[in-house]
Amino acid sequence: MKRKTLAAAVAALALAGLAGTTQAGAVPGTVSGDGGNRIGTLRVNGDAFVKEGGLSATWVKESGDVKQITLSGNRIGVLTGDGVAWVKEGGLSATWVKEATDVKQIALSGDRIGVLKDNGDAYVKEGGLSATWVKESDKVKELELSGNRIGVVTGDGVAWVKEGGLSASWVRESDNAIGIDLAGNRIGVLAGNGVAWVKEGGLSASWVREADDVVQLELSGNRIGILKDNGEAHVKEGGLSATWVHEYNQAIQIALSGNRIGVLKGDGDARVKEGGLSATWVLEAENVTELAFS
């Protein structure tokens, strides 16, 4: 989900000597996955790397001059510094396809690609990489995709979700939203007061209050992850009222996918664990500004 208040959290950590100034400029986007075996990192120098397989697999450099990376299945998407969105499909060495210009966020899910343009227009395409774009909404500040659901947060702080085809009707989900996240039949919103809410089921299901003092909310499968404004990362597994497990301190980003949990520390170290919530952390890379899962 978009971590609108993450820059403030990073600034606080930087004052404590825990974060580099490069972190605060990272472009927020969709970082959690749906159980894939790919890990992506964006490095301080703008290089994007992806690995596939186990946690000790070899990194492959995908592109330079990148400000956002996102993964879904066998697709990789990057947003370069000039505002161009690129997507490749297949192996890690597949050929890039230019998708759109004047872009400030890219999102992937299954065979859908979404872009949020500089002017606030959100577009989604479905099918091959050269499919036709469909305009979904305007005045958008965040775009999220999951399965056959599309979520947006508009400039007035309203979170909307549609389900089904690209021309389905929008359902108003929440006001005072600064972020939205989707996973399966779950919808999460982060409110402007730092409260994280999640609902499960249909678009009109009831909200459950998950946590306070939150700066990032992530969903994947039956797991929910939060990053608190004090740098603590917590994850719960199971129902919406499951118990939180404290995962890490001094974090500036959290990512989830299947049975993987990733955290990015203020010093640029990216760590990932696989298995249960108490599994052992593995150091994946250093000098990282963004971590993404497929």
Total number of strands: 28
Distance between the termini: 14 Å
Helix segment count? 2
Integer-rounded radius of gyration: 17 Å
Largest sheet: 4 strands, antiparallel
Tell me the series of helices and strands, N- to C-terminal: HHEEEEEEEEEEEEEEEEEEEEEEEEEEEE
Per DSSP, what share of the residues sits in E-state strands of 2 or more residues? over 45%
Widest beta sheet: strand line-up: 3-2-1-28
Low-confidence runs of at least 5 consecutive residues: 4-27
So what's the overall shape? Answer: globular
Q: Please tell me the overall pLDDT.
A: 92
Structural class: mainly beta
Instruction: Give the proportion of residues in helices.
Output: under 10%
Concise structural overview:
With about 290 residues, this protein is mostly beta strands. About 5% of the residues lie in helices and about 50% in strands.
Can you walk me through this structure?
There is one protein chain. The two termini are 14 Å apart. Helices cover 5% and strands 52% of the residues. The strands form seven sheets. The chain has a four-stranded antiparallel β-sheet, with no helix packed on it. It has a four-stranded antiparallel β-sheet with strand order 4-5-6-7, with no helix packed on it. It has helices at residues 6-15, 21-24; strands at 38-43, 48-52, 60-63, 66-72, 75-80, 85-89, 97-100, 103-109, 112-117, 122-126, 134-137, 140-146, 149-154, 159-163, 171-174, 177-183, 186-191, 196-200, 208-211, 214-220, 223-228, 233-237, 245-248, 251-257, 260-265, 270-274, 282-285, 288-293. The radius of gyration is 17 Å and the shape is globular. Residues 4-27 have low confidence and may be disordered. The protein is mainly β and 294 residues long. Strand 16 (177-183) and strand 17 (186-191) form a beta hairpin. It contains two helices and 28 strands.
